[in-house]
Amino acid sequence: MDRMWDVVVIGAGVAGLTAARSVAAAALSVACIDRMGPGGVLMNVTEIHDFPAAQGASMGADLVAHLLDGAMAAGVEMMIGEVTALVQGEPWRLWVDNAELGAKAIVIATGLGHGRLGIAGEAAYEGRGLSHCASCDGPLYAGERVVVVGDDKWALQEAIDLARMTDHVSLVASHPIGEAAGRLRAAGVTLVPGHVVGLSGEDGVTGVLVDGPDGRHHLEVLGVFAYSDRRPGLDFADGLLTVESSGRIRVDADMATGLPLLFAAGDVRAASTESVGEAIRDGERAGSCLARLLQRS
Fold it and tell me: What is the pLDDT of residues 274-297, one digit of tens each?
């Protein structure tokens, strides 16, 4: 085994950084590992809508910087790497790239992956009109027609954000969105009930095929922003965890998974509302509970 810590946190988003800081503040050794670096999807969020002025920061990157500074000041060791396997034991063992690491306890805070349309040939359009980030790619479509696919609060917010960048935004939603429809109308977003069943275009997206309550029809667009069917990436723990049909990890009120000293926090856990405030609370709870358990042992 190459390295050993009291706790390893997998994922350096809001929940992961908060959990790591909470553990380190109890004078325990902590490593926080992420394959992309600190921040996760929050690095691309231009404005935090669900938790205004969170921790004194209104922009995603500002909040990440605040949380990262706090974690490192507490003594958290940050690592960039891909966790490829997690094996239960005393200690827990995990493989990051080619290194075998160990920890008395683990926190999984890997969040959710990109949205998926679930249609044939989808992967071929990645980066060629199919996107997952309004603030990243929205400016590329100024004045063009785009469509957002999804019906949760994040899809709605991304559609509204995109409407500030271009005048031609549609939201394809497979379920009723209730009173949120008024917010879309006010922002100039067109609501299209139904499912996306196909993409068209030779060198990139030029249209989407929508199966709706009134039949199948084609929308001419140059950009598609997919937020439907976002699921956790937990291949490194395949068969180890109890998950719901959404792929999210079941936990108790303390964020414990039921396996010894294995916790999960943030969007990766079942029943998460995918809010910044909740991710912070999850991280604090997981970290403080783990610290108490380890200090007693």
Answer: 888 899 999 999 999 999 999 987
E strands, the chain, where?
3-10, 30-34, 77-80, 83-87, 92-96, 99-108, 130-131, 145-149, 168-173, 189-193, 195-200, 207-212, 215-220, 223-226, 262-264
| Beta-strand relationship, 215-220 and 99-108 | unpaired
Q: Pairing relation of β-strands 83-87 and 92-96?
A: antiparallel
- Can you say how many angstroms the Cα of residue 219 is from the centroid of all Cα atoms in its chain? 28
Instruction: For residue 205, give Cα distances in angstroms to 53, 147, 292.
Output: 37, 11, 52
Distance CA 244, CA 264 (A): 14
The CA R_g of the chain, rounded to the nearest whole Å, is 20
Residue 197 in tokens = 């069943």
Reading the block at residue 5, the tokens are 């810590």
pLDDT, tens only, 24-66:
999 999 999 999 889 877 766 666 655 544 455 557 788 888 8
Q: Note the pLDDT of residue 72.
A: 97
Which tokens is 247 given? 């792929």
Residues 6+ apart with CB under 8 A from 144: 166, 168, 221, 222, 223
Q: How far is CA 108 from the centre of its chain?
A: 13
